[in-house]
Amino acid sequence: MNNFQYKNPTKILFGKGQIENLTTEIPDNSKILLLYGGGSIKKNGVYDQVKKALSKFNIVEFGGIPANPEYEILLKALKVIKAENITFLLAVGGGSVIDGTKFLSAATLFEGETPWDILSKNIRTLKGMPFGTVLTLPATGSEMNSGAVITRRETKEKFAMGGPGLFPQFSILDPEVVKSIPQRQIANGLADSFTHVLEQYMTYSVNGLLQDRFAESILQTIIEVAPAILKNPADYDAAATFMWSCTMALNGLIQQGVPSDWAIHMIGHELTALYGIDHARTLAIITESHYTLNFEDKKEKLAQYAERVWKVTDGTLEEKAKAGIKKTTTFFQSLGIKTKLSEYTTDYKGTAEIISKRFEERGWKGIGEHGKVTPKLVEKIVEMSY
Predict the structure, then answer these.
(1) What is the pTM of this model?
(2) Class of domain 182-384
(3) What are 98-113's pLDDT values in tens digits?
(4) Listed residue (202, 218, 355) closest to 290, CA to CA
(5) Which CATH code of 3.50.50.60, 3.30.565.10, 3.90.1150.200, 3.40.50.1970 fits the domain covering 11-177?
(6) From the CB of residue 6, how many other CB atoms can be counted at a distance below 10 Å?
């Protein structure tokens, strides 16, 4: 196992009725900017619960953060923060609202020329404005990690950011919110969290036996709970399992001491930036092609995955590994998620070349766990995903 240092300072308040504890988690005399998305929290009762819990605080609201948090919109929120002398940020929503809040946390204290530099120059945030979250849509794990992804519509770019200063101080996870989530978003959450685990697991062995078992248990749990939560989002036990699995998939625990990949995400981000395809669905588009074209580097782990997660016992190592790839694609499809780019847009020709060129221009000469996924190989991966 590789050396590592691990610290996750986020406090989790999990279960029914936890929103009422907001009042004890935010410092007294804070002036709060309440951030949310399209307004679903006003329909499902979460908004009223939050406002009631924060009745003693001075609150300013900023709604309308879109599914892929947009830089231009977040700049408007940044102006509010400065004009209103905000001292604490509260994200009430899914990963997009939380990611947007992380950007604002960083941008508020950023002393560079433009906040876009945080993203385009990959500047890590060591200290940001304090913030907490109330999770309403399980998927990204952003409620318990220090990463975020922001889109800039005018340039059709999507970049990741992060740093130790961007952990939420606390996150409230009430599984009861799941019952109001549309099935499409539940499917996205299942696929997103599943791929998060794969990105940290489907690499090569460094004898991180416990980390492998952690990862495999999350994958098995997501597979097990998927039919139940899709059938009945009001099933509290299924919702709790779904929500906690999404958090555990990307809170940093399973990646300690082992190599990570993240090529699927880096390529997938480009598909969202270019076509507006749901993030989770871009991952489903890219996964099979990525694993197929990097088969030799991943076949041992793919075979282990097929055996332990999918119970594939017959065949050679290579046959098991290939079965693991197919099982993954079939799982995405079982969620109602299409796995080819051409199923989302007819304007896909030339996409591979565009993405490859972008990687070259950014100096991304080799991504993945070995740094071997070159822009030319990215082009082949995207072409195979058509």
Answers:
(1) 0.96
(2) mainly alpha
(3) 999 999 999 999 999 8
(4) 202
(5) 3.40.50.1970
(6) 9
